[in-house]
Every structure is written in structure tokens, then in C-alpha cells.
Amino acid sequence: MPRAVLSLVFFALLAFPAAAQLDGAPKAPVAAAPPSQCPDNMDAFADSAEVLSCLCPAAQLGAGSVWGTDTYTADSATCRAALHAGMVGRQGGLVTVEMLPGLARYPGTTRNGVQSQNYGSYRGSYRFQGEPVRAQAAPAATQTQITQCPDTMTAFADSAEVVTCTCPAAQSGSGAVWGTDTYTADSATCRAALHAGLLPRQGGTVTLEMLPGEARYPGTTRNGVASTNYGPYGASYRFRGDPRRQAAAAPGAPQVCPDNMSAFADSDEQLSCLCPGEATLRGAVWGTDTYTADSATCRAAVHAGMIAQTGGSVALQMLPGAARYPGTTRNGIASNNFGAYGASFRFTGDARAGKAGAPVQAPVAESLQRTGQVQLYITFRTGSADLDMAAAPVLYQVRDALVNDPALRLRLIGHTDSTGTAATNLPLSQRRAESVRQWLVASGIGAERLGAEGRGPNEPIADNASESGRSLNRRVQAARMQ
């Protein structure tokens, strides 16, 4: 080919490089624009239904406030909410945000190291699309679509809603609780669930119902959680579906008396309740016949002569405070002097102390929940480890408590009074504890859930100088094993 023609072809290719590509041939890729950084909050998108993908830098995760859980107020800090929702880790990342209408309430929770707050009605909301990518996945048993429980239920106050939610293990150890079985709306939700006996230490799912406020919330110590007395509060909640609490006492059985009557101060209520034998051994008493509201209820009943030290049923009346409470020693109980106190109580009915009867048994399941232990007044044949027929009602209570709470494990500890020698009593107490264990195993309870030991006369809970004291010391103690 002539040189001139070659030159023309070469320059044509330089001038028109696209001409060297045929139609339909692959073209060079065009670089996509990087995602924009997320707005500090989504308020500018309120009143829209937009879906936005944006980038959360790590530095943006620590700034700003968050209101709500899973669904957040539009003015919540976007990237901090994404961390709370588990959509990004501490290094940040890409998120997709969906704008939503406003809600009537936004419950706050503590999750993934971020504390969100409760809020009422707000005009616009958002939530994140996609699957959470939490640094630590929830245990398989709790990997459901159920939202984590709010720190408290105050966002649901003034409603009658039923809420099902999940309590992580870490959440049951923090916060204050007011009340027993029915709790103030600002009580720590998961800690109250642990107090109510609904939640194991490893966490789990609970269902609760919102209720109107009550005039008082008596506090108790139960399942290792101390709740506190409180007066009137505008909203309450209680948990549903607790077979352990339902089994604590038969329908119509009397309630166990409160440790003291402080929760009923400033009222004129009348109350009938049961004093188990072991409850008469605890607490201080101030006054005579009329007692300060914070006096130990069952110990005051012994002092007043209403029951023997072995326990019984009592009726009492709340009264206004008095200017003074003189102390006396009576029926083996020393009460103390006290000055003015804001509320009082007295027992009604005839004093009936005298010869002690058999110790009154505390409800087994309820006592195990409240204190982690219970004294079992199980009768044996004299000087023997053979169970008496009269022991059956108490044994059935222990069996039912174990059946209704499959996680419950008990150590059975035999005790005797001081009658006889230690060489006789120590092995006798061991055999009696073992007899109870064998009865429970024969009734279908797994042997691995029960231990047995004997301590003879070495750990009395009452004075061995009286028959009532000795009868309280002859017992098998059931203590929860962790």
C-alpha cells in the first residue's frame, strides 16, 4: 500500500477512536457516585415517605440524642439511632432509612451501648431497613422479631396496652423497682420481671399489661431483687403468664403477712393474713398493743398475744400515728420505746397465745421466690427418718414448686432441736433430709436437681428452752441452689 494511504488511515483512527468499536460492543464502566453522609437527623424529611441510603462515619455515632426503639422520632440523631438499632457497628457503615408518619409514643431502651429516651407524640418518624448487624448476636432462643423491653414502661402510661418484649440478661441487673406483682410504670421493666419470678438470670421474653395507677405499692425482697414501698402513682403494670406465682398458694388461701405495714400507712384498711412460724422470728417491734407501722408484723402479733411463736392467722387494723409508743417485754418478745410516728396498727380479735401448736408452714413456692429458701415443717416418726402421713401437704407443695419451675434446684438441709446428743442428732438430720429427697425423686423430680445434708442441732433459729422454740428448730430447710 502506498505510504500516503497508510498515513491517511493512521490519522483517521486517531481522530475517530470510537469508529474502531462496533455498535453493541462493551463500553468502559462509569464510576458510581459515593453515597452521601447521613444527615445529623431526619427532621428535614418529616411528613414524607422517602427512603434514603446514606453513610454513617464512625465519628458520627457518638453524637446526639435518640428517642424511641426501632422506630425513632424524626429529630433523633440518625447515626446514633442506627447504632442503637444494631444496623451499624462501631466502625460505622451504610444504612437505609425509611420515613414514617408520627407515632403516639416512643419507648426508650438501652441497647448496643446507646441509651434512647422515652418520648410522647411526635409528628414524624423513621426506621432502618435491612437486617441488624450487631457485634454480638442475641442467643438463638431470643432471636425473634420482638422488640427489646423498654427500660421502663412510662411511655405506655395512661394506656391499657399488652406488650410482649425481650429482656437481655444485662438489663435485669439495673434500675429501681417499686411494688410487688403490680409495679409503678417507672419501675425498671426487666428487673421487675426478675422480681416477679418471670425471668431467669439469662434473660428471656415477657408479656405485661398496663394498668391504672394505684394508691400504694408495697415493696418486698424476692428472687434476689429488693423492691421498695411507694405511695400513689399514676400508672402501673403487671406481668402475665407466671405459673410459679400462680402456684404459690391455693385459691382462697390467706396471704402471707407483709414484713411490716409501712406500705399501708395513711390508710384505715383492715387486713387478714398468715404468719408462718419462721416469720415470728424476724424484725424489731416498737410499742405495745398499738405498734408503729414499720414494726415487724408477725413478731408484733406474738408480742400482742394473738398467736404463738409457731405462727397463725391474724387480723389487723391500720390507725393514724401516735405521739408515743411505749415498749414492754411480753410473750417472750421485747418491744422498744419510740416517740411520735406517722402511722400505726393494732390487732383485732381475742388474744389467744398459750400452748404452742404445730409450726405454721409458709407457702413454699412464694417463700422460695421471695427469699430463696423456706423452712419445711415436715413431720417424722419420733426419733426416726420415716415420713409421717401428716407430712404430705408440705411435700406436695415442694413437688409442685419444682414442677412449675424446671430451673429450680434445691438443697435440703436437715435440722434438729437440742434434745439428745449431737452424735445422734447429726446423722438423724441427714437421714431426714435424704428421706425428703427420695420422696421427691419417687414423685418424678430429677435426682440431679436435689441435694441433701444434715446439720443436727448446730443452726437453731429459735430458743431451745421452750417447746415452741424446739418445734421451730425441728425442720428441713429447702434452699435454692444457683
TrEMBL record:
Region ranges (Disordered): 450-482
Sequence ranges assigned to domain LCCL in this UniProt record: 65-126, 177-237, 285-345
Signal sequence coordinates: 1-20
Pfam family for this entry, one: LCCL
InterPro entries (UniProt xref): CRISP-LCCL_domain (IPR051957), LCCL (IPR004043), LCCL_sf (IPR036609), OMP_bac (IPR006664), OmpA-like (IPR006665), OmpA-like_sf (IPR036737)
Cell location: Membrane
Signal keyword on record: yes
Keyword GTP-binding set for record: no
Annotated OmpA-like domain residues: 367-482
Highest taxon in the source lineage: Bacteria
Entry keyword set: Membrane, Signal
Protein name: LCCL domain-containing protein
Higher taxonomy: Bacteria, Pseudomonadati, Pseudomonadota, Alphaproteobacteria, Acetobacterales
